[in-house]
Design brief:
The complex is a heterodimer. Chain A is of the alpha/beta class. Chain A is 23% helix and 23% strand. Chain A is built from six helices and eleven strands. Chain A has helices at residues 16-25, 68-78, 88-95, 152-160, 221-236, 246-251; strands at 3-9, 28-34, 45-48, 83-86, 102-104, 112-120, 136-143, 147-149, 164-169, 191-195, 201-204. In chain A, the strands form two sheets. Chain A has a nine-stranded mixed sheet with strand order 2-1-3-4-11-10-9-6-7, with helices on both faces. A two-stranded antiparallel sheet of chain A has the order 5-8. In chain A, strand 1 (3-9), helix 1 and strand 2 form a beta-alpha-beta unit. The longest helix of chain A is centred in the C-terminal third of the chain and has 16 residues, at 221-236. Chain A is globular and about 45 Å long. In chain A, 57% of the residues are buried. In chain B, 29% of the residues lie in helices and 40% in strands. Chain B is α+β, with helices and mostly antiparallel strands. Chains A and B meet through loops of A and helix 1 of B.
Chain lengths: 259, 100
């Protein structure tokens, strides 16, 4: 039986169908979660897809933060539930305070839509245990507000605690500088994705669901989505528990079991 | 038809700006356009947003308190932005028709 993974649908979400498709490709049964319902229907993981929730009015993600479904997501995350925010979903999680930092307007002021190279800085998490260490992943970005910002102390803490999950790199895998073309939005320390302290909530600006079939240029995103779906399945069976940052360690049981 | 004073209406503006030192590409874009306009001597442009609103409340302190909460919780992200509340003078009595 396949594991049920929720995909939140806000007014203005536009990657929900692609995300659901890619999740089923990764072996999950996707379940749409409407923003007005504060009930997650017993899913084993939740994905907040990309788009422009509530038109991105005021600030990207901020209005979505106060929706009924986000109350449920916050409670779910506090209980150790697995939550992934992609692009606008990342912005929502940051605005909701479920992830550190903020996403500012791109340094270039341009909406950037192209393939970028990223590297998983941790390959022992719910979201990345399928990713081969050191592998350059190609995925598209498509956003106007993706410039990762946090104050220096927070950035240092993220680095120290291994909570920088993805970083933009050049094609050879070297971390991008702030003003590199390889850094599509000018993110500080080239941060493309981060983890919360519990290791159970993650967000990234690139779109794994748009890199879900080699026919479309890359299926590197499937490494992330398969990681998530397997983690959800393991958690649904009570196979993994969190605690003292154990999300990552718990996942090492399933890492390395084929690609 | 009864009319009663339910509350007084207070008008406010909340001015939100990027915090000092936070990247403000919009402000920079405006600055970069200045030479095209033939304008010299203008700098330190920062672009924010202004939200105007009306509050019905028993008194000015309560009204401002509500605006403070709105500004803190929604209008401004304190990590990257700062805000200032501006009272917009005119206070009008709000009369609401009841029982009609």
């Amino acid at each position: 039986m396949s594991v049920r993974v929720g995909v939140v649908v806000f007014p203005g979400s536009n990657c929900d169908t692609d995300t659901a498709w890619a999740l089923s490709r990764a072996g999950a049964e996707p379940v749409e979660l409407w923003h007005e319902h504060a009930d997650l229907g017993g899913v084993a993981a939740v994905v907040l897809p990309g788009g422009f929730a509530y038109g991105d009015y005021l600030r990207a993600g901020v209005i979505a933060r106060f929706s009924p479904v986000m109350r449920a997501v916050a409670g779910y995350a506090a209980d150790g539930g697995i939550v992934l925010g992609i692009c606008n979903g990342f912005q929502v999680l940051a605005e909701a305070g479920l992830l550190p930092g903020a996403l500012l307007r791109n340094r270039s002021l341009r909406f950037v839509c192209r393939d970028v190279a990223i590297r998983a800085e941790r390959v022992d998490t719910y979201f990345t245990h399928r990713v081969p260490e050191g592998r350059t992943l190609w995925m598209p970005v498509a956003h106007g507000e993706g410039c990762y910002y946090a104050d220096e102390a927070t950035l240092d803490a993220l680095e120290r605690d291994g909570r920088v999950l993805f970083r933009y790199t050049d094609p050879d895998g070297n971390p991008a500088r702030v003003d590199d073309r390889a850094n599509p939005n000018g993110s500080l320390r080239a941060i493309a994705g981060v983890l919360n302290t519990g290791g159970n909530v993650a967000g990234l600006m690139p779109h794994p669901e748009r890199a879900a079939d080699a026919l479309l240029g890359s299926d590197d995103g499937m490494l992330v989505l398969r990681s998530l779906v397997e983690s959800a399945a393991a958690r649904a069976q009570g196979g993994t528990t969190l605690g003292d940052g154990g999300a990552a360690r718990a996942m090492t049981m399933t890492a390395g079991t084929g690609r | 038809m009864n009319a009663e004073i339910v509350a007084t209406r207070f008008h406010f503006a909340v001015n939100v700006l990027p915090k000092e030192g936070i990247l403000d590409p919009q402000g920079r874009a405006v600055e970069q356009s200045l030479p095209h306009l033939g304008l010299a001597g203008i700098e330190q442009v920062r672009v924010g947003r202004r939200v105007e609103l009306a509050v019905d409340a028993p008194d000015a302190t309560v009204a401002r308190g509500l605006v403070e909460k709105l500004a803190r919780d929604l209008l401004c992200n304190p990590m990257i932005e700062q805000y200032a509340i501006e009272a917009l003078g005119a206070i009008s009595a709000a009369r609401r028709e009841v029982g009609g």
